[in-house]
Amino acid sequence: MTPRSAVQQYQQTQFTTSDRGQILLLMFDGGLRFLARARSGLEAGDLEQFGHNLGRAQAVIAELLHTLDHKAGGEIARNLDRLYRFMLGHLTEANLNKSAKHVADVARILDTIAAGYREILAQRGPVVRAA
């Protein structure tokens, strides 16, 4: 087993044995990591890295959007829906304009949502932050 496949196996095991709250935290962390990599790629002039990681961040945000439970979440779900849609649109603009500012704006919003979610989960019990 190569080191890379061992890491992938660990991550898959971590994902499949986590509760819903931990999975959402992993998604937030992954989205933030992809946004940071996209921004780094853009700043380095590596448009392939920028595009690849921007697409992965968009996929994470789209998944967050599609996991919203509007029936149970009420107004919070509606507000998150609007924020996620705004972020997806903003990342489309980031791609079109090769804009690090747009990526940073989305990272700031996603980080704020993630921090709030972490706080909520911390109140219900111990939360493990993804590495």
Write a compact overview of the structure shown.
With 131 residues, the protein is mainly alpha-helical.
Sequence of secondary-structure elements: HHHHH
Number of strands: 0
- What would CATH call the homologous superfamily? Flagellar protein FliS
CATH architecture label name: Up-down Bundle
Give the amount of beta strand, in percent: under 5%
Largest β-sheet summary: none
Number of helices: 5
Q: Tell me the count of domains.
A: 1
Mean pLDDT level:
88
Give the C-alpha Rg: 16 Å
- Poorly predicted ranges (pLDDT <50, ≥5 residues)? none
Query: Span from first to last CA?
Result: 21 Å
**What is the third-level CATH name, the topology?**
Four Helix Bundle (Hemerythrin (Met), subunit A)
Tell me, what's the shape?
A: globular
What is the C-level CATH assignment?
Mainly Alpha
The portion of residues assigned to helices is over 70%
Which class best fits the helix and strand makeup? mainly alpha
Describe the structure.
This protein is mainly α. It has one domain: Up-down Bundle (Four Helix Bundle (Hemerythrin (Met), subunit A)). 85% of the residues lie in helices and 0% in strands. The protein has five helices and no strands. Helix 3 packs antiparallel against helix 4. It is globular and about 45 Å long.
Strand-helix topology:
Blueprint lengths: L2 H14 L3 H24 L3 H20 L3 H28 L2 H25 L7
List keywords for this structure.
single chain; 131 residues; mainly alpha; Four Helix Bundle (Hemerythrin (Met), subunit A); 85% helix
